[in-house]
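The following block was generated as part of the benchmark described in Methods. Ligand: cobalt (II) ion.
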Amino acid sequence: MHPWFRTLTEEVRDSSLTIEGSVPAWLDGTLVRNGPAHFDTATGRVSHWFDGLAMLRRFAFDDGAVGYTNRFLRTAAYRSRVDGDVVATEFGTGLTSLVRRLVATVLSTATDNANVTVARLGGRYVALTETPRMAVFDPETLLTFGERRFDDDVPGQWTAAHVERDRERGEVIGHTVRFGRESSYHVYRLRDGTRTRTEIARIPVDEPAYVHSVGLTDRYVVLPEVPFTADPRRFLRPGVEAFVDAFRWDESRPTQFHVVDRDDGSVRTVDAPPFFFFHTVNAFEPADRDGVVVDLVAFEDASIVDALAFDRVERGVREATGDLRRYWIPLDGDGPATGRPIAEHVALPRIDPVDRRRPYRHAYAQRTGDVDTTGLVRIDVTDGTETVWRERGCFAGEPVFVPRNQQSEAGRDSVVRDGSDDGVVLAVVLDRDAERSFLLVLDGSTFEERAHAWLPHALPLGFHGEYFE
Ligand code: CO
């Protein structure tokens, strides 16, 4: 088994990492990442990579030094798995695909194994997954402070772990899905400092789709409804067997972009040829045309979902290749949405947070498609130019861009964006031969390596993280 997918049980606290090169002294915040790290059960092994227990990983920067802490979330899922009481709550055991995991999640006990990402919501640091159960944690010690749910009546048994933050308007935008006799998507806002979501729009749907993230512009929320959908009646019948194939790919159906007005909640729907996706990259409204640009990482179909089950994940993760595509969604009734490729073989895309909701230049992503390495790529989305970092035998996770001046987002009207990318890119990289991971620090403008900070162990591949000032 590739060390990316081996259980790591060791937890360390405030380990001072050995650094090769130099970490810039201006970097003085904290990167917190999340992801599965424990894949064993009393009876064997979970079947899907996504079912691993959530481990937080913290990198604290201080005057060129890097302190490292890693800790499992202490959730009910952790206690039952580690204490050996597998059958009672391990919804994924014996199931072989994300589809089955998702269905089991919706139907039976919504898991509290919040292993997808982290965010600061309502003044608390929380770990998130695709159920409404969030885990509150201490960003210094990574201690788990218990569970949190939103205090409101926005419905939905399923929610995207990804939310879109709009600092200028002081809110976070996300969506939930309600499965039932009448199913619906619910687009909501969460004002900063509160824990009460407000529904912006309710979109009825016969067969809800798997939608992992949305796009956000100054005026609109864009929910791409892909043709990978489930008949909700299956969720209403007892018995797991009936739900096994609830989600299915139907390429005869279009992908539909639901464009929600953030102020009045009105919804316009624009069709596009079918595609599957997990992650939007950025979205904005051009000044001169009535419509929305949405950049996302698209797949031809939903086969990536089954490729991440453990029997295929080693090859699946590295060979599963998405395309960075730019979709133009006209809002003047002028035809369907159209997409054009910008880059191939990318996953886990990020941008400079300053660039959100604006025409921008650079996206950062994993470079997939090679079994001997997973690199990182910076893509100039205006012309497709790429700058790549990679080393044979090294496998990089999601790259997080940290601008040198974090405050610039709030006052960015006065900031000239020249594409110079003054900042760094942070990513955790696994060295397969050394069986250890390191934190890689790349220069944002040259994409050349500035430093390696060696971890005391090999970290399993994580999903997402955030840099907190
Ligand atoms: Co994601």
